[in-house]
């Protein structure tokens, strides 16, 4: 009989799937008597489907999603249904993914129901996909933010008032501020005018936009399907002006 201590936490290549299931009960019992508690949770649910899938799944979510045309949210979540369409995960189901996330010793995975009957999965470690930040928090309610503000100039406003706010040419997100700082414009060298666009966050959430709180407490959104915040989601637009006059310069 094989004991847990002889496996060193790994599955030898010569053990068949049938043998894995046959040995699991004996291994748990023996490892408990020997005090090897670290083996217990792993062998409780080891089976043909879930063994060694965790690292592959973490790699897919952190690096490989773009090669499979998977939509990845800015906080790293991917639809479970989309993941289960990819080999070698087609033989798995939602329950399997929950088990894999639960027993993963490195806690690399999270499975959550982010919308009613809509399950998502993500890897919590650093991603190589440049626009994914697992530490960003989704804003679910308007009470979670003080506001959502976009700054532009007079020329930019002429386009935005017709087309809406769009992502920059090299950007994956639209970046917004929550407030106007008290000394906004003070560091500017010259007199100037800025157009301040206030987004109606409550209406935008109902419209289907998602917002995320960033590390610096500002906000980011992907916009709608076209990467845009349309004008009907503007709550208020202001013109902010300031001027400077040098009265002493040594």
UniProtKB/TrEMBL annotation:
Q: Domain of life of the organism in this record? A: Eukaryota
Query: Catalysed reaction per UniProt?
Result: 2'-phospho-[ligated tRNA] + NAD(+) = mature tRNA + ADP-alpha-D-ribose 1'',2''-cyclic phosphate + nicotinamide
Q: Which Pfam families match?
A: PTS_2-RNA
Q: What is its EC number?
A: 2.7.1.160
Q: Which GO terms describe its biological process?
A: tRNA splicing, via endonucleolytic cleavage and ligation
Which Gene3D superfamilies does the entry mention? Answer: 3.20.170.30, RNA 2'-phosphotransferase, Tpt1/KptA family, N-terminal domain
**Keyword Transmembrane part of the UniProt annotation:** no
Chain segments annotated as transmembrane: none
Class of this enzyme: transferase
Tell me a Gene Ontology molecular-function term this record carries. tRNA 2'-phosphotransferase activity
Q: Do you know which InterPro entries this protein is assigned to?
A: Ptrans_KptA/Tpt1 (IPR002745), RNA_2'-PTrans_C (IPR042081), RNA_2'-PTrans_N (IPR042080)
Record key words, sorted = NAD, Transferase
Protein role: Catalyzes the last step of tRNA splicing, the transfer of the splice junction 2'-phosphate from ligated tRNA to NAD to produce ADP-ribose 1''-2'' cyclic phosphate.
What family is reported? Belongs to the KptA/TPT1 family.
Q: What is this protein called?
A: 2'-phosphotransferase
